[in-house]
Amino acid sequence: MATILVIFLRYRERLEKLGVCCTLQDLGKHIVDGKELPLPPVLFGQLGDDKSKKTVLVYGHVDVQPAAKSDGWNTDPFTLTEKNEKLYGRGSSDDKGPVLCWLHAVEMLQKQKINIPVNIKFCFEAMEESGSIGLAELLERNKNDFLAGVDFVCISDSYWLGTTKPCLTHGLRGICSFQLEVTGIQQDLHSGVYGGVVHEPLQDLVWMMSQLTSVENRILIPGIYDDVAPMSKEEHELYDSIDFCVKEFRESVGAKKLPTEDKKTLLIRRWREPCLSLHGIEGAFSGAGEKTVIPSKVIGKFSIRIVPNMKPEKVNKLVVDFLNDLWRKRGSPNTFNPRLGHDALPWVADTNDANFKAVHGVDPDYIREGCSIPITLTFQELTGKSVLLLPLGAADDMAHSQNEKMNKINYIQGVKTLLAYLLELGKV
Amino acid sequence: MATILVIFLRYRERLEKLGVCCTLQDLGKHIVDGKELPLPPVLFGQLGDDKSKKTVLVYGHVDVQPAAKSDGWNTDPFTLTEKNEKLYGRGSSDDKGPVLCWLHAVEMLQKQKINIPVNIKFCFEAMEESGSIGLAELLERNKNDFLAGVDFVCISDSYWLGTTKPCLTHGLRGICSFQLEVTGIQQDLHSGVYGGVVHEPLQDLVWMMSQLTSVENRILIPGIYDDVAPMSKEEHELYDSIDFCVKEFRESVGAKKLPTEDKKTLLIRRWREPCLSLHGIEGAFSGAGEKTVIPSKVIGKFSIRIVPNMKPEKVNKLVVDFLNDLWRKRGSPNTFNPRLGHDALPWVADTNDANFKAVHGVDPDYIREGCSIPITLTFQELTGKSVLLLPLGAADDMAHSQNEKMNKINYIQGVKTLLAYLLELGKV
Known about the structure:
Helix content of chain A is about 30%, strand content about 25%. By secondary structure, chain A is of the alpha+beta class.
């Protein structure tokens, strides 16, 4: 919390040097397991208040996914390191790099004494990787205040489909997260002394987790695919024309084989079908080497990406009902407790809006994304205006993974793209 | 390595104050994943060299299982903390506490100017929790040197069956450890961007791990129970007479129900039947909270406790063959690599030996143990003499777990027991 405040103060200082009027908005507290946790603030900024100009709201986030050198990073994840024209570091691409691109774009226009033809509002948060807790409510409270008069929203927090051709993102998957807790013994036990005469919570948990997906990574929860929006003929055709090489994709992830190697089916599965990923287990031995322990309380983590027209409430119910059925089937005397984590709605935009048309440069591919940016839909609903997802990073930036990077060329061209977008918006 | 050297130098200093002649024995190096790791030394000590006296060899270990306050300890695991007549700290019971009891016993006899009627040799190591790597070979090399003339071996590295009645341990299970590595993508991936279009290694691994045991914690690997020694009528009767309360045991582990609640079946499963425990997964997300990642390389850890007449080579082959069959059945394009960890043979002693008869105090229960002390069998084979397992700690000491402790009363009575044992040995 102290760290994130320091980070926000640095961003505020840089914004204020550009003449941006900034305030830190208190998000209050969040209750986890009965404990109150203070939430980091949100930074609101405003540059220009010319009634004759349109206003664009720029969103970004300065929080990042966890990272440690020992996860397999080649460099310290929290020291930006340049190597082979790439900028390595946690957040370089998701999403501190793109946030900085916005600051550079404004700075460059001011240095060149070019009139910025739009008013700019900034909304930078630090809870995006945790489902943007509290932000929707804060924005709701500011609907007639900070959000009033916003004509366009722009978010740079997604990725190109490949590594060379710029893209515009017009769809995002949502997410429902889950935690499966299994307990049954009061503390970790010596497996030599107690092995064979207790029901091991971890044996129950891996069995539960193994029942969620098929070997081809399709979800085994009944009804989960029922609400997926049917595809129109036009959408089918859009997929046919997208520039995407399955072989290059397969090689970039380093897989021998993919669950599907058909371009269209693969893109459909990534963008407009739900999927289930297992993330890990808390409470079991996770170090290197051996530890002959029977863990007493283990928590399996997984999430389901959801698409239109799936609703988190319905997905949560389907999943929890399925888990409870599974647990009955398992017949273990241990205690099972399924918990809901954060969720976010999917989002799809109208690509014919002026906001989309204002993007300068090569004709982009209109793509969707498999991931979630929880606040996209909130901005669209509260402003009633179009939200543009303008990705600056390349497909191989490895957000959330080891050795996250942003290419120097994407960073520099990204600044130019944002700058051109601002100038184009002035012509709308 | 530096830490363990410092610990050994402290023990050497204390032993030398008692007149024990000490040397540190180099164990050389151990190769793990192609890398050479230096092994910690072994401490050999000798007190007395009177040819007219018998010689007892005392074994202990000063290494411990991993521990961190964040695992759920109420106190710093590496600061011995007294609370409610209990001494809390990692190693308090397994096995630094018992090692110190030996030092106190000798010190007390010397202070009281009581002649110690036996020569004592000490063998303290620091690799017990990792399968005593290198120790068997070191002892083999010292068969006609340090081990020559040893008449009795005594090890205090096990536990009473309950919390009130002292026990003598005359059997130990062995162990075979395994690691299941599944890889398939070159690094961790963002589950939003890649979810649904890769075969997730963690999905494969939890499925593999879920196929090893039944819900009642019986091993599903064909042939694994085939070599378990049949029980004689006498052994059946021995189990009938043992003082053991299933209800108290169940409550001490905090379980609602056990896989068996029949006293005899439960003890048989703990002491003379194999069992399989899952310990955890390396490489997946193991922290608190959420991380929407697809882990790229995950390693499942499990071990099987083995009993007479099972042989590690045969168990290893049964398990690896089973795992390879399972993997074929899974049909995943990912890469699976089963690896063998440390193993140790089971051990059973003849309780009619003078070494067992020399134990003073209340008539003890003759028990076996579910856990392994790898070096027990080596001592028996190399000296050709009886090995006494003289447990000092209580059943609820929670070795390998959070909040490991030794009761102050066990610590004090333990010193007296060892002291009486030394005096009794002089009468043999």
